[in-house]
Amino acid sequence: MYNQIWGDWVNPETQTQGSAHKLAARNLIGTEFPGHQLDFTTHGKPQLQPPTAHINHSHAGNFAILAHHPHRSVGVDIEQLRPQLQRIYPRFCNQQEQQALGLKPSLDILLLFWCAKEALYKAIGEKGTDFREHLHITSWPNSDLKSNAANAQDLPKEGEMEAHITLEGFVQTCILPYRRWDNYAAVWVAIEKG
Predict the structure, then answer these.
(1) Distance between CA 134 and CA 126 in Å, rounded?
(2) Separation between Cα atoms, residue 164 and residue 133, nearest integer Å
(3) How far apart are CA 160 and CA 141, in angstroms?
(4) What is the DSSP string of 58-116?
(5) Domain edges within the chain
(6) Residue 107: closest CA among 62, 145, 63, 155
């Protein structure tokens, strides 16, 4: 399983860091599921062989995280705060979310939105899932306040968000727990997927 590191040779500058991240994620999987192989669906979602649990993993900075569930499809994302979220959020937030977030949403809220949508996308595990059209964040920390007035100190370090998935033939409301620390956030979800 540990030699399944792909794509790092494309960019020599990220080869070492990318390989270390992938190795850390695979180490987590190997430790938690000894005697299993890591495989991927046709859409690229990681899966165990034998299929004893649903898994997903993510990495950022010096952190790697693994989510697993015996019956539900899981997604997890960990990210580091980055200023470009302020510029690109209209690409991953729909009109209702943008209106609720206000004119200048905080980077901390945007980081949670990005992680939540990534976790949902990874749990669904199908290409063609659109962040704006199919993944709707309906409740988040301090959603009752104007997000442009909220800052990092106002947001709880741990909590939950709520989202609604609206894919053709698959509609579901789900809860996404999150955790924040330093300049990082992690969000995870387990969904019922037939």
Answers:
(1) 12
(2) 11
(3) 7
(4) EEETTEEEEEEESSSEEEEEEEE--TTHHHHHHHHS-HHHHHHH-SS--HHHHHHHHHH
(5) 8-75, 83-181
(6) 155
For the segment 48-66, what is each residue's pLDDT rounded down to a tens digit?
999 999 999 999 988 989 9
Taken in order 160, 52, 39, 170, the sign of the CA dihedral is negative
Q: Which pLDDT tens digit goes with each residue over 167-183?
A: 998 999 999 999 999 99
Report how far residue 36's alpha carbon sits from residue 48's, in angstroms, rounded to the nearest whole number: 6
The amino acid present at 83, given as its one-letter code, is P
Q: Which of 96, 62, 78, 69 is nearest to 166 (CA)?
A: 96
Cα(121)–Cα(74) distance, integer angstroms: 10
DSSP state of 14: H
Distance between first and last Cα of the chain: 28
Which residue stretches of the chain have pLDDT < 70? 1-19, 144-153, 194
